[in-house]
Sequence to fold (838 residues):
Amino acid sequence: MTAPAGREGPVVVQKYGGTSVATAERILAIADRIERNLDRTPRLVVVLSAMGSTTDELVGLAHQVSDRPAGREMDLLLSTGEQVTVSLLGLALQSRGIPAISLTALQCGIRTDGVFNVARIRSIDTARIRAELDAGRVVIVTGFQGINDADDVTTLGRGGSDITGAALAAALGAGACEICTDVDGVFSADPSRVPGARLWAEISYEEAIEMASSGAKVLHPRAAEVCMEYDVPIHVRSSFHLRVGTWIRGAASIMERAEVVAVTGDAKIAKFTLLDVPDEPGMAARVFQDLAAGGINVRLIIQSASSAHQGRITFILDKEFVAGARELARSWEAGGVTSGCVVEDDVAKISIVGSRLAATPGLAARMFAVLARRGINIDCISSSEMKVACVISAERLDEATAAVHEEFFPAKETAAATA
Amino acid sequence: MTAPAGREGPVVVQKYGGTSVATAERILAIADRIERNLDRTPRLVVVLSAMGSTTDELVGLAHQVSDRPAGREMDLLLSTGEQVTVSLLGLALQSRGIPAISLTALQCGIRTDGVFNVARIRSIDTARIRAELDAGRVVIVTGFQGINDADDVTTLGRGGSDITGAALAAALGAGACEICTDVDGVFSADPSRVPGARLWAEISYEEAIEMASSGAKVLHPRAAEVCMEYDVPIHVRSSFHLRVGTWIRGAASIMERAEVVAVTGDAKIAKFTLLDVPDEPGMAARVFQDLAAGGINVRLIIQSASSAHQGRITFILDKEFVAGARELARSWEAGGVTSGCVVEDDVAKISIVGSRLAATPGLAARMFAVLARRGINIDCISSSEMKVACVISAERLDEATAAVHEEFFPAKETAAATA
Fold:
């Protein structure tokens, strides 16, 4: 990292999410927070999401004028949300006498691959931001959006402001990428559902990515990937106070790593079953090729040797992809691949995440035993290097999460650890 | 005008104001209107304002985070309103299978002089718009905004979308600049206050400019100036139906011109009096120089020879400038120019407008006589080539407007004219 030209100290990037900028009062609170901490963050870049409900309202308007709002105009529409919040924070800081400038993605050179609605950041020309920092200004940047080669606005998809923050931190060689949110950091389970959930002081990038991919609302997994690649430490912390939250960094620099870092639940999944699939080669290949070509991510494939289930292909996918999969199923019916499909959306996924999971097979067995003791049926299991996931009945998810969490983080021990 | 490269026919620019885009339903109605008329307007550029209440809401948010929101960030904030409407109309047209593209001021090269909040359009690079028209698309442009040399958004002030429409029509050599609004065209008085108001088939640019400057909500006077300079006819018409409204064009092409085209009222004024101004040379000069330097437009100066008012300087200004004038008055008090000021905001202005007014002195006298017959006191009079304005009590404004209108447009005659 080269030394900054103007003010001293490394660049800090702070990202504030939708609940942190939900009202004018909350934006004033962020201005307070920045003002109180200005000595410690003299070179500060702030990335903002849209106000809490704005994106939903804009999507609602779009659905009133179009059956399938998408593409270029949808991105232009959605990008207004962050323009509003960055302008307001700029006005709030300026009225306190703090030099500040709010920049759109175009003004700070965030270039994307140009795919509307789900663009990826390709490059950032940091000249303007560096110049503004050198001039002593707090730089406020619209999250969630970039510009393609035609200067059209392209958005990064839900949670995209995390990616903007991470990409800016990487491009600026920042000392830290702070994800300021409505919880105190990264917990061993969702603290609003599991009261005994433990707040971590630090976890590894890989663990954060696995947790986020398993349904934990930590940060966007691509944001963690970007910071891992550029070795920028992430600090997930509360936007309501200045206490330290959870640091996410390279595994090598973490002294003592837990076997299991989180128990996560995800109810936004559905089970999709194709009936009467002929026992011919190429049938499954066609199904999964079609799904991939349609941009539909399959989370799990359930294979069963039981004769009762012969001729079936079952897979788990996110609820949002069900409509697309149903459309494909109609083409498979027409093509003789299946006689029809069954969708069950009363399923959920419970996962344990930890970087030493694969090396410690006993951990997965403990999870299965806890579920078995409670009579919670496991529909299917998927395991990877750092994760074991079970599909269960959605209505047992909260109970299962609490029980599995208690197995790995007994209340007594947790109390001792946090004492 | 050169022949268009792609589709045939001249370019038409249509501007829709805040009430015409107030809701998703209204935007769908505009999409309907465009669809039904597409054969007659194959090369169509649509300029939109923000949704009715959006600008006020954004200003409200800004005042919650800053005592005096202004400047660069304010313009970035306000410019989101038009981005929302152009995106929504783009989605609405696309969902009907009509090729359409929505462009921001930056994307269609509207450059300004760079003064935030009250910028003036300096140039328009029409290459992108022409290319989109050639490709057969309806082009939808954000009104009210331009871009300065630093690519910062600069807004044109209230009513600025009219100016955008006029400037685009001029730059594109359009066949017409249509101002689509919530009334049927230009009337001889505000039809919501004067039931017998007459709808004109055509008036001159100069008359439109004088009317707009006298408080009539026709269109922004600068928009009419731009169209006059580039000889683009303006068509003020309803956005609710397709009937012909009022054409505004060069006086030379208008067959028969009325002596008086409008009676207009304006209650948004105040009377400002400085007391005990020493009878020394240079005092009045200082006052009006300071006002001009502060960007405060003085509408009328009242000079009185009466001894009771000696040592007073009285002028009429728009209500919005009262706070600024009060601030200046404090500096004049400190400098010995005055002992203090009195502000009266219970005054209003009634005007008659017509291009043959100066050549027909009897017309002004008829106005004064009508007011005198009703015992309405005239505080002061201002007259110009095309306008006679009287300052009266605000509470008599509606009565005065109706009476003066009846004098020049008797109900019987109007009925005959429209029959």
The longest helix of chain B spans residues 80-95. Residues 1-6, 415-419 of chain B have pLDDT under 50 and may be disordered.
